[in-house]
Design brief:
This protein has 144 residues and is of the alpha+beta class. It is 51% helix and 14% strand. The longest helix has 14 residues. Helix 6 links the parallel strand 1 and strand 2. This is NADH-quinone oxidoreductase subunit E. InterPro entries: NADP_DH_HndA-like, NuoE_N, Thioredoxin-like_sf. One of its GO terms (molecular function) is iron-sulfur cluster binding. It comes from Cetobacterium ceti.
Amino acid sequence: MRENFYEELDIFIENLSDKKNDYKILSYVVEELGYIPEEVKRYICKKLDIFPFTLEGTINFYPKLKNSNKKLIKICKGRVCGKKSTEILNYLEKYLNDKDEYVLEIVGCLGRCNKGPNIWIEGDIYSYNTFEDIKKILEDIRRK
């Protein structure tokens, strides 16, 4: 997640005519991050002074937000990364098959070609050489 995301989120909320419009706020989060991290849900609940089940109700009601409960993994298919992206996608689909916590997405470019191949997980971009590198990254993220 971007360093100043919460500042940007606060500014977005302040500019809303209805500052308690959780749908618009959650839509903004999905547009910016691709999913709704648990820590952002807690932040929004505290900021709006609402219960977590209220926010979950909104997420479950709107299809656009529903898949955002899952963590997003973006696999770069740009010029440098593209050679390995299909192979990595196949490995990840098999590896994550029994885990329903991730959504995989192929993207055109993550903008870090000089360090590729790259993968975007939960707002951060990681470089990798093998599938084992990605498995280690996922394990490290789970431990946090």
